Amino acid sequence: MADRVQLLAGVTTVHLLPKTRCDFARDLAERLCSDRPVSGFNLLGAPSTLGQTSHGAAGGEMRARAATLGDLEDVFHGLSKRMSDEYVAAGKDSKIAYDNLMMNLKEGRAHALAEGEKTVAIIAWHESSDAADTLFAAQDDFFRASTVRFCKRHIRHIQALAGNLPIHSRSWLKGPDVARWFHIIGYVERGQDNGANLFELPPARAG
Question: What CA–CA distance (Å, rounded) separates 120 from 144?
């Protein structure tokens, strides 16, 4: 099974060395995925607005839309150090996280979170028999109170797309801010999984 990048609620990342789109495409073709999930907040074609917006800070209104390759590259060229630290704690790196998000993007399971004209995060997911695992990457601009409020609504939209399965997200970084971020969104802690804290968003109640 391909690696999974899990929902990362309070983490930050090293900046990647500049790469061209050809470099990323070549690296992706050569990359083989291992069996261990990658951490983080756990679509090709023309972008489409998903009908959810929230007013951010200076950047304007935050909205979610279908992600593109350009969105993915933009986020990783300005990746937050929190995210990079999370990937390292999971025993992976930013390139593996990029590859896994790319695979889900191609399968139509990735959203870009944009504030104004700037894409600040990519959220993707992958369904299994009993849950949907999230994948995530973000820039520093994502980690604000306004984006937490937006994600509280948007993660329920992703859950609906996944057939109202429980949403599983993991964090390898410790700290009260991480757990608090998940709890605000609606997650509950489910113990440890491969060294990570496992958080679960229960299925939405009918009505």
Answer: 11
